[in-house]
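re: that chain from earlier
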Amino acid sequence: MTIDRLIHIFAGSFILLSLAFGVPGSPVFLNTWWLAFTAFVGANLLQFGFTEVCPLGWMLGKLGVPKTCAR
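^ sequence. v structure.
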């Protein structure tokens, strides 16, 4: 598993989870403020597309996760 793949997995999971908690029609609805977390993840993905700077990528690198797949 590489940093790029893990970033996509984490972002997708957080978006789906925060939508489940933030959309009133959801069976696990908690509060609409969870949608702010969805917006935060989306904004972080947008800035990562322009700058290639991602806090999660930095943390995963410090944990020793490889940046690319060495085949």
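Residues 22 and 32 are 4 Å apart (CA to CA).
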